[in-house]
Design brief:
Layout: H1 3-6, E1 7-11, H2 16-27, E2 33-36, H3 44-49, E3 58-61, E4 64-67, H4 69-79, H5 92-116, H6 124-146, H7 159-165, H8 168-178, H9 189-199, H10 211-220
Parallel strand pairs: 1-2
Antiparallel strand pairs: 1-3, 3-4
Helix pairs in contact: 2-4, 5-6, 5-7, 8-10
Domain GST C-terminal: 91-228
Protein name: glutathione transferase
GO molecular function: glutathione transferase activity
């Protein structure tokens, strides 16, 4: 079995939950194979690998499945601990803070985006307000977590950077789809500067989808299927 065959990711290129896993693997220098799912269909491999939630992404490491993107990223951090600096801080309190904000991002931003894309029912103005509130909190969190450095993780991309950063492609796409401006430099100068740095990082730029591709995906494919990512 080759190195790439030993690590496979069942997923979809447009999913932020898949994107964070792929970036984590790239940061660790791990070769992998992306096994693409088809929108609206669930492969036998996916159903067999994640029989409980039946959602992407799933990491297959030597055939053993790991589900849930936050768990997968932490698994990658632990398994390939000697290949690159850790995503999570060595200090237990700092780790707890990073995990708190990571869960906050997925709880507040991801569901609001589904409303703004028209995938789930809800008031779009309320969803936009929820994103705005989240960005206000994350702007403050960045100042505290980064301590004047480039990333939430300090000098390098860390756990919270991976989680929040994986949604950045959809920020611009959702703005186009909804006609609502979300990531405004005047309101969130720290976050917008961080977003530019994150998206141009060598481990990110080849994985992060282009805005127009995401808009096309959302229009032509995602509207026909329930979200199946985590």
């Amino acid at each position: 079995m080759s190195e790439a065959e030993a690590v496979r990711v069942i997923g979809l290129w447009a999913s932020p939950f898949v994107i964070r896993v792929l970036i984590a693997l790239k940061l660790k220098g791990v070769k992998y194979e992306l096994v693409e799912e088809v929108v609206g269909k669930k492969s036998e491999l996916l159903l067999r690998s994640n029989p409980v939630h039946k959602k992407i992404p799933v990491l297959l490491h030597h055939g053993k499945p790991i589900s849930e993107s936050l768990i997968i990223v932490q698994y990658i951090d632990e398994v390939w601990s000697s290949d690159a600096p850790a995503f999570l801080h060595a200090d237990p309190y700092t780790r707890a803070v990073q995990r708190f904000w990571a869960q906050y991002v997925d709880d507040k931003i991801a569901p609001a985006f589904l409303v703004l894309r028209g995938l789930t029912n809800g008031d779009k103005d309320e969803a936009a307000a929820q994103v705005s509130t989240a960005l206000e909190h994350l702007e403050e969190a960045f100042v505290k977590c980064s301590q004047g450095k480039h990333y939430f993780g300090g000098d390098r991309i860390g756990f919270l950077d991976l989680v929040f950063g994986s949604h950045l492609g959809w920020f611009r796409a959702v703005e186009k789809i909804s006609g609502i401006k979300l990531l405004e430099e005047e309101k969130y100068p720290e976050i917008t500067a961080w977003a530019d740095r994150f998206c141009t990082h060598h481990a990110v730029k080849d994985v992060m989808p282009e805005t127009d591709k995401l808009v096309e995906f959302s229009t032509n494919s995602a509207l026909k299927a329930k979200p199946t990512t985590n």
